[in-house]
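just leaving the lab so this will be short. what follows is a protein written twice so to speak, once as letters and once as structure tokens for the fold. can you read through it and tell me how you think this chain folds. thanks a lot i owe you, the record is right below.

___
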Amino acid sequence: FQAEDGIRDDLVTGVQTCALPISNPFNAQVGTSYRVRAPGRVQVDLYDVLGRRVRSWNRRVESAGPFAWRWDGRDRTGAEAASGMYSIRFRYTSDGGSAQTLTRRIALLR
């Protein structure tokens, strides 16, 4: 796996690329793009610095190709998340059952 930011990660073979988050640090919303090699499921979990899950997204990808992910700065209840550091965990699970994980860090400044 070669991320678009140049970091090599051999564990993530299903996700071809995952760009650094756009607008990091950010105020209102942040996003990134990623590319998958084959159909499967992408689970994105957002954690605060204490390891609490703030929000989750689950997406079925029917084909290889590029996709985008965005966060509007809100938690799962719709409330604005507090300023601070967050971790985005991308987990790709192929239709064959193998899974790979990639983590990116972002900073929210209100």
In short: The beta strands are 15-18, 30-36, 40-48, 53-61, 65-71, 84-94, 99-108. The radius of gyration is 14 Å. Residues 45 and 56 are 4 Å apart (CA to CA).
